[in-house]
Amino acid sequence: MQYDPRRVLLHALTTEKSLNLRERGNCVAFRVALDADKLQVQRAVEEMFNVKVTSVRTMVVRGKKKRLGRFEGRRPFWKKALVTLRKEDHIELFEKV
Prior knowledge:
Layout: H1 5-8, E1 9-12, H2 16-25, E2 27-32, H3 38-49, E3 53-61, E4 65-68, E5 71-74, E6 78-85
Antiparallel strand pairs: 1-2, 2-6, 3-6, 4-5
């Protein structure tokens, strides 16, 4: 994959679980490209938000089966990245208003 931070980080996840992780451990969650690796995610976060990343954990989330009448389909697979920042760093995108 050609490295471009805007193509690596698709959008931030603001679920209840990810907000709890941010409050407890200074960890933020992103939906990332399926072919992005940990190093690309780390570089993209550091470049876009000017913070220092201490660790990156990635996981592939399997798409759920969905039915429409008698037909069955599947939602697409996607990749989630949990990025832990230094204690003194934070991202304004996630700060409370």
